[in-house]
Hints:
The complex is a heterodimer. Chain A has four domains: 136 residues, Cytochrome Bc1 Complex, Chain D, domain 2 (Orthogonal Bundle), CATH 1.10.760; 68 residues; 119 residues, no CATH class; 83 residues, no CATH class. In chain A, 55% of the residues lie in helices and 1% in strands. Chain A has 22 helices and three strands. A two-stranded antiparallel ribbon of chain A has the order 1-2. The longest helix of chain A is centred in the middle third of the chain and has 47 residues. Chain A starts with a helix and ends in a 21-residue tail after the last helix. Chain B folds into four domains: 316 residues, Alpha-Beta Plaits (2-Layer Sandwich); 220 residues, Rossmann fold (3-Layer(aba) Sandwich), CATH 3.40.50.740; 165 residues, 3-Layer(aba) Sandwich (Dimethylsulfoxide Reductase, domain 2), CATH 3.40.228; 137 residues, Barwin-like endoglucanases (Beta Barrel). About 3% of the residues of chain B have low confidence. Helix content of chain B is 26%, strand content 21%. In chain B, a hairpin with a 2-residue loop joins strand 3 and strand 4. Strand 3 of chain A pairs antiparallel with strand 2 of chain B, so a sheet runs across the interface.
Amino acid sequence: MNLFFTMHIQVGMIIHKLFNSNKLVLLLFIFPLILSAEANPDAGKVTFKNYCASCHAKDMKSALTGPALANAEEYWADYPREDLYNWIRNSQAMISAGHPRAVELWNEYKPTVMTAFPNLTDEDIESILLYINGVATGTYGTPKVDPAAAGAVEVEKKSSNYIYYILFALLAFLSLILSRVINNLNKINAARDGIPYEGKTMMQTLTSKGFVTFLLFGLIILGGYATANKAVDLGRQQGYAPEQPIKFSHETHAGINKIDCQYCHDSARRSKHSGIPAANTCMNCHTAIKNGSEYGTAELSKIYASVGYDPSTGKYIEGYDEMEVDTIERLFKKWIGDQYLVEKGIDVLDNAGEELVDAQWKGIVSSLTNEQKSDFRGPIEWIRIHNLPDHAYFNHAQHVTVGKLECQQCHGKVEEMEVLEQHSPLSMGWCINCHRETEVQFADNEYYKSYQKYHDELASGDRDKVTVEDIGGLECQKCHY
Amino acid sequence: MDKNHIWIGSQDLEMTEEFVQQSQQEFQTNPGTEIAEGALELEGGRRDFLKMLGFGLGAATIAAGCDTPVKRAIPYVVKPEEIIPGVATYYASCYSQGGNAEAVVVKTREGRPIHIEGNAMANGTTGLSPRAQASVLSLYNTNRIQAPLKSVGDGYEALNWAGFDNEVLSILKGSRNIRVVTNSIASPSARKTLAAFKAKYPNTEIFTYDPVSYGGMLEANTNSFGSAIIPRYHFDKADMIVSFDADFLGSWLGGGFATDYAKGRKVDPAHPKMSKHVQVEAHMSLTGSNADNRVLVRPSEQGAAIAYLANEIVGGISGPKLNQKAQKALKKVASDLKSAGSKALVVSGSNNTYEQLLVNEINNALGAYGNTISLSGVCTSFSGDERNIDTLISELPGNGIDTVIFYDCNPAYDFAGGNKLADAVSKAKNRIALAYTPNETTALCNYIAPINHYLESWGDAEKYEGETMIVQPTIGRLFNTRQLEESIMVWSGAAAPGSVDFMHDKLQGQLKDGAFASQDKFYSFASYWNAAVHDGMLKGGSSSYSFSGSSLAGIGDKVSKPSNAELEIKFFETIHMGNGNASENPWLMEMPDPVARTSWGNYLAVPVNFDGVRTMVGLNGLEDGDMVEITIGDQSFTVPVIQQFGQMPGTVALALGYGRKNASPLGKGIGVNVNTCLTTDKGRTQYYNTKVSLGRKLRKEEHFSCVQYHHTFGVKGTDAATGETINADEAATVFVTYGAVQQGYQGSLTERSIVYNSHINDLDASIADLEKRRANAQYLNDKTLYPYDEYVADKYSQGHHWGMHVDLNACIGCGACTVACMSENNVPIVGKREVSRHHEMTWLRIDRYYYGDVENPNTVYQPMMCQHCDNAPCENVCPVNATNHSSEGLNQMTYNRCVGTRYCANNCPYKVRRFNWLDYTTADIFPANQIDVVEGLDKPFYADNLTRMVLNPDVTVRARGVIEKCSFCVQRLQAGKLEAKIEGRRLKDSDVTTACESACPTGAITFGDFNNKGGDLDKKLQSPLNYIALEEVNVKSSVTYTMKVNNRDETLDA
């Protein structure tokens, strides 16, 4: 698999060298085989997020600490490709060497120094550039489907619907014919008996008892079905992704920076709750990282305002709870303003800067307060996403530590979620199904030695696995007490 | 009479038709009438119905369309290292009340104390008294004083502490004489703070008294041992125990003797030996009910009885005349004591100095000192002397006493001369109370300093010398209160106000200079301190005392004189209410008195008289639940009556601790206060009164809240047609005649096996008999159409199979387990009215049965909880499968499935299922179904957020309309299993304990896994004394009981 993967990257590189990179999109249509791998921009994305995203905006179009990257290749088009590689690997060296483009950039952005990345290979850099172009042109991230396959699916879908429509039309047609036949037969009968026959009008048929009953019956069935379905869904909120007081990105933390889930959710291994990390857990890192890769000071300052940390001095504020709000406001506005000045490389706050500072301060206050909490100081009140009913007992430790489940099994690919959402339905049926299928970690836990019969059966081959259900995992009082 | 014949009360003995009728019914009254008034009174016709239907549908549709309400998840700002949300944290602390102190372990969840157990590291047992168990609920008492108060006009004004302290300090500085009134204080540090206060204000006197006084005993011991100490009793070492009205299994000296006592009472059939216990008393006390023999003497005859025994053993004492029967019995007791020698132990609950002196002489003559009684590591925490308060009352008017401070005590209520004190205190210009809740004494005061709960405080306590227990806070202060000691020290100028950890620092200081310096186990003080706080107890050295005899000349005239009155009344403390300071605690209010089984009020215990044939007649023809007028001294009360087997003829009894006047509605006006009826002899409070007369029977009590006849099973009745004695539910069964023999089905026709008993000397025969009866039950069970054993051949062959063992010889009936069960499982309290309608929700009840002599019987206590039958009759009848069986042998109850048909409760042979008739927990959305536990609360008891903090978050709070019952504490089983799984090891029986098991001070309950061979449970199951209740009905119960064994001496009854 890995071999296959790298092979495609290499093939992609070769092709890329033959053609211009931003023509690759065309190439994708020519070589559907290569398309299925889509290796380059994905690898580029990872590298970008790891190394570049802390200074360069993710949309590639706006400037952050570093310039927007959308047109980087264009700017460097006049120089050999190697120059661009070298610039990315070690910009200061090129500035010292007096490369015209390098000096031009330095003059624009000094004193901000771009970090050197000597470990990046040419391939890595190409991948990044591929990703940058993809994002800039909007081609990256949109679903690409095999046109042929997609067409087939579409047809199939349509055809299945068509069958129903055709069937319905056929039946309607048949019943029409039948009613005509009956009508005519009645007419013939009437004529034979010499009785004047008056056929039923359409109106009479539609208002007949039989038809109305049939209609009502149908409505009740439909209504009942819909009601029952809706009722089952009551209180379930799969896909629930509320806006949180702080735009915390699991994608940035768990995905790009690869922080272990249990670094923050440290209760999961030993408690029923996974635990929403306390603000002091955030501060473990964010005393050092004070400027967010995506939102700059806007979101991170909220943590500081919650715990009473002065990012300018790097110290916790004494007597924060008793402090005047005005003092705190000045303190944080200064910090936000200072960061803006550094970023822009200017000395005095401009209008845009003033607005930004005001907006960010208002954002801090509004997101850290709510109807019940009037002071922005104190705990951050997150919106709870995974809500189990009170009569259901769930224990994270049992599943994480004993069952050795991956968090993602229930929570989905959290590391790809910019805004966290509820991945699973958290319905009883969903729990039960998993308990039916999941094997117990029987082998290496002394506790399960008490299930001697199962061990014997496993040894003798009479049984191929022991599921949670087998040890009573479907019983009421495993979760309800 | 059949040896195994047991009865629960006179109705049962008499087998009246009404009783038979009633015992056949699952529910006492027609369920249709059980709904709260007004709940079903819907007015309107068809059109209204359609309107409501339409509205309902519309509302439901809109509700379905709306988003789920936003719930917030609020983490800590800085998470304390030791707290993991969702995991309980345990802290060692100490519950202390007056001179009593019990080391406890407090279970907290997310910082909230929710459950209390005994500290096994300090006590050797996780058992605890019911009052200590329930103390966690007092923390969340909504009636607490929440800020310092100063009386203004008719009301109070809340001050801040600085302002309050200023006013108090200026009062103290300007006072010519200050008096501090307090109960015994078990905390050495607190005693030191009072000493410092006295040093600062030299014109201060500190007066200590105890509501139930040990003054006489302390005075006698001062004579005998040279110091006002109480020796340490070892009931486990005694072969012969004689107690003169000392309720040592109940409240005597704060209790704590049950663990030792039970050691001598458990029976090993291989080596049959048990202690002999004779109780000399008039009223059937908890201790008396556990005794082998009770020698009946009137309350006023106690002195005569002690003098008689002393004369028999020590000689040369001529006391007042004792009744003939008691004389004869005590003569035999004396010879038994003498043959037990140093293995004998005599205690007395008397508050007469000379009687206690005689008891000391008896113990000395028997050689008990140094054997069953030690004179080192003695109890030094009691120092109350009621004569102090008499002094105060006499010196108050016109002696220049301008300030009286009440140090966490309530003499206006619980002191015998409380009324006199109240009058006298009003003469003092300044009255300052340090109090937890408003009470009768704070009502007299113009300054009230609110104090912390012990779960909010640092402190120490020392009941026995050399065993210092540390009081550790488990929660921050809920209100603007301040620790007792801190207030005193601030007023002494020895501490700055507002230092939260004041006692913490003080304790550390004391230990550093004291105990730490004189030990060599720990090098650094920090580790020494941490170990002390963790263990909850510091062991240190203690002094030794020795007995020296006193002059006994003329002592016979100084003991209390028997009265010739026709009727005497005995006043006693019950194990749950004590002296009444916990009367705002509804867990204790609703807990039935173990002996009388009455709750929510004190009931007048009247003796019953057996006509020798069938009828039991209460004194003056009084029956259970009659209201009667009683005149004690110059006061009259109207009290409800309970017939009490074993109550001495010519005596009645009434409990202390009720009838509070100034308390929250949960305690106010419930029962009557008889503290005012106590008498005085030689300055000592006497807990009986000989000036008592019963008036006429008035009416039936409106809400007769005795649980005695609730949820009975297997009782006998009389066949109305033939007059024959049959089982009560026999009428509902079908007779089929096989040949000449009439037989029936379903085991209900057999003699029911509920309790077996035996004399220790008949053990072999009893075991043989038991085996026969169990074999017979097995034979009947084999006749089933459903081959159970084949059917479940493999079901419990692996994994866990939970079971329980209850040793009836260890169970003393104290009820600690029932309170622990309520605390652990969020079992609601329901109030007096609901209890009277058989609606109490207790998952675990302690059935009390009598056997033997009808007028002076022996008692068996049988804890009865869901038996988790493996062939459960409740499961088969549930139409919605809400109750079913787990692979671990648990009878599971799923509340969300339950639709409330109550078929299961009807079909349960043990009557342990409880139905939520009304919305006891306020979990419903319809207020019409809520109840008022008592009248006068602002909102239903469980609706208050403060009260709800005591709920166990791992256990569902049940709504109206569902059945609930004992779950074997399944949440604890799951937690125990998980711990073993995480640690990757096999489960031990000790990993899983039920709340009742750990609350039991005598180790009567053992829980475990049948499949764990060699485990704790398995060991207990080996005894031939074991039996299964109602084994013949083939329900395969998972709970095993032991035969009750007594050591009764029949010759004492003659």
